[in-house]
Write a structure and sequence with these properties.
Blueprint (H helix, E strand, L loop, with lengths): L2 H9 L6 E2 L7 E3 L11 H7 L13 H12 L1 E3 L4 E2 L10 E7 L2 E6 L4 E6 L1 E2 L15 E8 L8 H26 L2 E5 L4 H8 L5 E10 L4
Antiparallel strand pairs: 1-8, 2-7, 3-4, 5-6, 5-9, 6-7, 9-11, 10-11
Helix pairs in contact: 2-4, 3-4
Length: 215
């Protein structure tokens, strides 16, 4: 669906996720992330770039596991601390994962995906046409109820910093794993908030698309 079509449907309040037939898994248990491989950091930085063309094929469960752990998984289990920094360790960013077979929320403590909606919400994660068919669209949402120790006037800024760190983690993982990605800020906020069933204290910060490179 084109940008203009999505923009027009959004103005009419008719841009929605697509309900799915059958059933989605209530919880997807991801395999343990593979933390032993990957290219050297400086090489990954040299190859980090944005790409807007994606193959339609789904990521493997291992790729999805590694991607989400790299993004904001727990790297110090004894402290439940993450691969991305957050102000006062608020860990305010929640990652939503839009897949062809359902809309999920990443739960780092258990390293699982929890079902949010039995729907294909990829097309509402952005106005660009490529988000409709790319295998993974990530949505970074700041839960301001987790930031009560941070002065209110600083919460938006620090949530954006945290989301930026997560997005860069995704870029570096993709460069290392031979995947491609692009971070995005162009989306219909009302349609996306509706699909994610967000509360007023939850704010969408960024979206990011991940997939195999188009051949």
């Amino acid at each position: 669906m084109s940008l203009v079509s999505k923009w027009f449907l959004g103005k009419l309040g008719r841009l929605h996720a697509v309900p799915l037939a059958g059933a989605s898994s209530v919880q997807v248990e991801l395999p343990p992330p593979d933390r032993s491989g990957g290219m050297p950091l400086m090489q990954a930085l040299a190859q980090r770039h944005s790409e807007r063309s994606f193959a339609a094929g789904a990521l493997s469960q291992q790729q999805l596991s590694d991607l989400l752990w790299a993004a904001d998984g727990i790297n110090r289990p004894e402290l439940l601390e993450r691969t991305a920094p957050s102000a006062m360790n608020a860990q305010e960013i929640v990652i939503y994962v839009a897949l062809q077979d359902g809309l999920y929320r990443y739960e780092p403590a258990k390293h699982v995906l929890a079902l949010v909606a039995h729907a294909d919400a990829r097309r509402v994660t952005g106005l660009q046409d490529f988000v409709d068919n790319a295998p993974v669209d990530l949505v970074y949402v700041a839960d301001h109820t987790r930031m009560l120790l941070i002065p209110e006037q600083q919460r938006t800024t620090w949530a954006a910093v945290c989301a930026g760190a997560i997005a860069q983690n995704v870029y570096l993982y993709c460069a290392s794993a031979g995947l491609v990605t692009v971070v995005r800020g162009l989306f219909d906020e009302a349609a996306l908030r509706s699909a994610l069933v967000l509360s007023p204290s939850e704010k969408i910060v960024l979206t990011q698309t991940v997939g195999q490179p188009a051949r």
